[in-house]
Amino acid sequence: MKPVFKMMGDSAIQIDFGQKIAPEVNARITAFVGLIKEQKIEGIVDMIPAFCTLLVNYDPRIVAYQELLNRLEELTKLDVQVEASSSRVFEIPVLYDGECGPDLENVANLAGLSKDEVIEIHAGCDYLIYMLGFMPGFPYLGGLDERIHTPRLDDPRLKIPSGSVGIGAAQTGIYPLESPGGWQLIGKTPVKTYDPNREVPILFDAGDYIRFVPVTEEMYHEIAQLVEKNEYECAVRMKELS
Question: How far apart are CA 16 and CA 3, in angstroms?
């Protein structure tokens, strides 16, 4: 699909790359973000990728709408082929079940599986981060196995602890901050995926991947102590994309 440009107020342009949520669409958006960064276009202040769109925020005092639109349209003509590349995979430790995952048993019952089977399935693949939203650092992940797709709670919780890992319908994600929410909670990570005191507050970017790694309660608390001392770093490996 040819990208479609839309004016969004007086300081943003939205580029639609299609209507399908798919890895190839996300790869195209990620590649285009990289292309824009390489150009170092004066006046662009932020870029926000989503499932099928990219929002480009700009300062109209520095670059006029039509000038920026022309530049972006020319760049999309170059974005005809997404080359094979690699992406980061962040390994996120998770303590499943118990107080950390109060809905794990419910997810298992609805799926007709044991809790151990749900954990094995959930931790069995790399999840593509399609976008960050809802709150700072909340990753919307693609690739959840259909066997554990689970409806959201009928009555959302008023308070979900930060670090909670949940399932909402066909998606899974991590709550970076304490907040209300209706996803089914199956575990919790001690890792701060968002920390405003870090030089780079959000741990990962759209286009990266997450792999959940089950840990014991003892390991969870050991990691939590290191996190509090700013002495813990998630394992990160590279994933070749075809």
Answer: 5
Taking each helix axis from N to C terminus, what angle separates 115-122 and 104-111, rounded to the nearest 10 degrees? 100
For residue 65 the two structure tokens come to 């709408």
Structure tokens given for 145: 């196995």
Task: Evaluate whether 49 touches 70 at the Cβ level (below 8 Å).
Answer: no
Q: What span, in angstroms and rounded, lies between the C-alpha atoms of 141 and 84? A: 21
Q: What is the mean pLDDT of each run of 10 residues along the chain (242 residues)?
A: 91 90 82 87 91 92 95 80 72 96 97 98 96 89 95 95 96 96 97 94 93 98 96 93 68
Torsion, CA 3, CA 127, CA 226, CA 198, rounded to 10: 0
Q: Provide the 8-state DSSP code for 9.
A: T
Give the CA-trace dihedral at 39, 44, 49, 55, to 10 degrees: -130
Write a three-state SS string for 136-152: CCCEEEECCCHHHCECC
Residue-range domains of the chain with CATH: 4-78 (3.30.1360.40), 86-240 (2.40.100.10)
